Amino acid sequence: MRTLCGLYADSMRTLCGLYADSMRTLCGLRIEADSGIAFGRVWCSVRGVQAAASAGVPEGVETKILQATRHSHKDYAFDEAHDPTRPAMYWFQEAVEGLVLFVVFYTQACRWSQCLGCNLPALMSARRVGFRALMAQVDTLLDDPVVAAKASELRKVIVSNNGSVLDQETFSSTALIYLIARLNQHLPHLAVLTLETRVEYVDPPELEFIARALQEGETPTALELAIGFEAFDDQIRNGVFRKGLRLEQFEDLVRTVARYGFRLKCYFMQKPVPQMSDEAGVKDIHAAIDYLSRWAGETGVEINLHLNPTYVAFGTALEASFRRGEYSPPLLVDVARALVRAEGRPITVFAGLSDEGLACPGGSFVRPGDEAWVRRLEALNRTQDYGELRASLCAG
Can you tell me the distance from the alpha carbon of 180 to that of 281, in angstroms, rounded to the nearest whole number? Predict the structure, then answer.
């Protein structure tokens, strides 16, 4: 499992039982108490958003986030009490590149916020987090003694805000530049910097500038864009999951990335919606592997398929289906069956094996007795050697 580092308690206070009730108000700050700790949360009301719009109030980023959240039938709250000078969370993991630092910065939440089973914005703010606070988060991260001790070992950093790092409305451009400068200063062997984003925020001139800056470090660093694909099937991805990503958009992105020599990471979720059977979930990932392999082969772009088995995220429509007995998370043996399709293909794979504390009780994909499958999948992440995984599947 992922080794968690600096996983701050205040980031994880969004618990499964915290749902909206009759006291919701538009952007109202509500003080709850859990185990004697007071913390603030912003709940949203579609009715209040609509009233503001009809009154001629300009629709800002915060209003759009709240409206999208409620329109998607999500009952989670945003974490307004988190210390804005500290990242939401960060941890280490092992991948084929070597030691990876995965950091989730605390910013304003994802502007899209419509994806069916996603409650990642619950760890963010509905309100804007300014560049000074974000720069302080960068300092907190890189000044952490555990991170500093591993600085010379780190080969890859994945930058997330549970939304889009390239969305300048929610992630400050000043802070992004500052982050790159400090990475160049403090991580001498950094080989890859990964930025998570939606496709619509990709701006080639901006990326060209970032890529040039990354070449100035002690070790020239490749730029990788991480895109949430979630499901390959068009109807599942956009009609049911509401991802808002067309294949044409992705293919345009691949062509752009190929021109600049950047890399791509594509996040997929296995069995992300109740309408999918276990077998359909495996076949969807097989189709994704075939598709990405074709594009990698034709363009020469280095593509990584990052497969996250779906957990039941609290405060989402998926949780409601789970409570009604209409959904169960995928089995890790089926995750292995899905990933072995990539053996011998021109792409790499990574199995995400953490629910980051956002699954409701009983909603994780890791079950008692799964320890051996976790170990095998983690080994695949590090080595891209399918031998043990395939042997275990054949042994039944």
Answer: 37
- From the number of C-beta atoms within 10 Å of its C-beta (0-12, 13-18, 19+), residue 84 rates as middle
Q: Which of 22, 41, 42 is nearest to 33 (CA)?
A: 41
Does residue 227 sit in helix, strand or coil? strand
Q: What is the C-alpha separation between 118 and 213, in angstroms, rounded?
A: 33
DSSP 8-state symbol, 184:
H
Segments in 229-349 forming alpha helices (H): 234, 247-260, 278-299, 317-323, 332-339
Q: Do residues 96 and 128 touch, judged by C-beta distance below 8 A?
A: no
Report the alpha-carbon distance of residue 54 to residue 51 in Å, rounded: 5
Lowest-pLDDT range, 69-73, 251-255, 385-389?
69-73
Tell me the whole-structure pTM to 2 decimals: 0.84
Environment class of 123 (CB within 10 Å of its CB; exposed 0-12, middle 13-18, buried 19+)? buried
The whole-number pLDDT of residue 67 equals 87
Distances (CA, A) of 177 to 135, 149, 165, 171, 338: 10, 23, 12, 11, 38
